[in-house]
Amino acid sequence: MAPMSAVHPATQAAPAATADRLKLTEIFLSLQGEARDAGWPTVFVRLTGCPLRCQYCDTTYAFFGGQWWDIEAILAEVAKHGVRHVCVTGGEPLSQKRVIGLLSKLCDAGYVVSLETSGAIDIADVDTRVSRIVDIKTPGSGEVERNRWDNIPLLTPHDQVKFVVCSRADFEWARDVLFEHKLHERCDVLFSPSANEVPARELADWIVEARLPVRFQTQLHKALWGEEPGR
To answer: Does 90 belong to an annotated binding site?
Structure first.
């Protein structure tokens, strides 16, 4: 299914925030490019704002701006696209506490829901029907001190953990964290190469050589559409 053009919140009115509104950067239909559901047509709900500044971030445009959307309007926009999968992303979605309600309502509506989160904020209140894709920041990210290790005991087989690897040193650090916390016994673990820092083939070779119980992944959407917004 070909992706549709993004619907940007700038086309909406911008009322003051209330308990039923979230600040969004965009909503769009594309293929999921990462994690367990890679390849599925997916509606992306991108929230505005993030407290981290990872050096490899590819969505810095979501740090600021955005417009307020009623949660019911978000649900209506998602429904228009007619697909089962929804990914709530950012920025850092959990920096807006009202996203917890949106996630539960999406689950109630029967969607297959995933949440992409930095791992720096408590995931305890997220509906367990949501597949929580939790980053663990490597030293190469520049934000390793922001990892919230208390999230690890909360992980279930329905969740996923992601490492973005920026160097051989990052790989070895991630490998050690993987085994120290037995992450592969809790949920799927994903290793991704940081673009322009580690060649994808090199990371794949490291994983195979070390026989790590992890899933290698690249960003499918970028292979297809590059940096085109709304894809």
So the answer is: no
What would the pLDDT profile of 73-82 be if each residue is shown by its tens digit?
Answer: 999 999 999 9
* Total domains, the chain: 1
Whether residue 215 is annotated as binding a ligand: the answer is: no
Instruction: Report whether 59 belongs to an annotated binding site.
Output: yes
Domain assignment present for 186:
yes
Q: What CATH number does the domain containing 188 carry?
A: 3.20.20.70
pLDDT digits 0-9 by tens, 14-32: 444 456 899 999 999 999 9
132 carries a ligand binding annotation: no
Q: Is 91 annotated as a binding residue?
A: yes
Tell me the two tokens of residue 160: 């996923």
Find the DSSP H helices in 28-115.
71-80, 99-108
Domain extent, residue 95, equals 9-224
Is 176 part of any known ligand binding site? no
32: annotated binding-site residue?
Answer: yes
Residue 3 in any domain: the answer is no
Is position 89 annotated in a ligand binding site? Answer: yes
Q: Is the pTM of this model over 0.85?
A: yes
Instruction: Tell whether residue 58 is among the known ligand binding residues.
Output: yes
CB count within 10 Å of CB 45 equals 27
Question: How far apart (Å, rounded) are the C-alpha atoms in residues 91 and 80?
Answer: 24
